[in-house]
Here is the input.
Amino acid sequence: MAEPLRLATILRDQDVVLHWRAQEKNELLQAAADRLEEVTGMTSSTLLEALRERERLGSTAVGRGVAVPHAGIDGLASSAAVLYRLAEPIPFEATDQAPVDVVFVVVCPATKRSGLLALLGELCRTLRADQVLQQVRTASSGAELKQILAEAIEKSPRSGHQRNVVPN
Here is the structure.
């Protein structure tokens, strides 16, 4: 069995972007696709289309200013992620109508969608904690933000062997 990937593994330090400026959702998705192209080797246009297709199914904004755009993609070799903390919130069609300022974008091989959903569920549960979300919004560096998330996930009541994993 392949070693599972953890959030800390698929989210590289250089892919935590603070104070990003975007005017709207499509601009942000394009920036994420461009960044993920470097990591995955897939073309930016393929990644962008997969992310847009998922958004057409319904907004990936989960409320409280957080969005988790994601896609399972045929032919993708491994999972990758980028996290943006925006300088100014942008509309994202959230059910609570709140604009988003924390955006976690993740792509994975199409065959690993169940692992992707488990990872996203865990991330959303972690960000529901007011203290964690506030720390994410005020972290002074990408490394600090990653550490906040890693510690919060480990302290989570549901922490265990199968937590926060996406099979490789």
